[in-house]
Design a protein that fits this description.
The chain has about 180 residues and is α/β, with parallel strands linked by helices. The chain contains five helices and nine strands. About 25% of the residues lie in helices and about 25% in strands.
């Protein structure tokens, strides 16, 4: 039986607070009894750093396996060398864990519902290039006319935007089919 889950992207330029916000949203979801999962885009180019280079699972990958994992004490580390890895395939994999919500950090150009973090005036150009913006959270006050019809919050008003986002998630407004 297929379980519905929500997806919410957290996007912004580097050092805008994406990871901090994602961590806080995970805690909010957990406090409300939701099972949360995250996907983070490594936006700095190249493969993410790894500390398990000389382990057996790495040797399996080096020998030609497309996926390898190691499990111990309830921890599963999964690595893959699958060449055509993309966000949709990652989401399909995550479905096996039956999350209620998947928070995606980054992947600006994808079309899932987005929270956009604005750190400076220069970041406002994101609002002209992104799709499916649910709300804007800014480090500074933004003129109303610049925001179109977006829900807008200042970074310091956490309680307000957490309530807004958690209510939207609970209503199933970000369900992925």
């Amino acid at each position: 039986m297929k379980k519905n889950y929500s997806i919410l992207q957290i996007v912004g330029y580097q050092n805008s607070g994406k990871t901090t916000l994602t961590k806080k949203l995970i805690k909010q979801a957990n406090q409300r009894g939701l099972v949360a999962a995250t996907i983070k885009h490594h936006g700095h180019g190249g493969a993410p750093d790894t500390e398990i280079e000389q382990k057996d699972s790495s040797r399996h990958l080096d020998a030609g396996a497309i996926v390898s994992s190691v499990e111990g004490d309830g921890v599963l580390q999964l690595r893959t060398n699958f060449i055509n890895w993309d966000l949709k395939k990652t989401i399909q994999l995550y479905r096996l864990f039956s999350p209620d919500i998947i928070f995606i950090e980054g992947y600006k150009r994808e079309s899932y519902p987005k929270v956009v973090l604005i750190r400076s005036e220069d970041d406002l150009k994101l609002l002209d290039s992104l799709t499916n913006i649910i709300c804007v959270i800014s480090h500074f006050e933004i003129e109303e006319g610049r925001l179109k019809d977006y829900q807008y919050f200042q970074l310091c008003n956490e309680d307000i935007y957490f309530d807004f986002l958690m209510n939207e998630i609970s209503k199933g407004n970000f369900i992925d089919d």
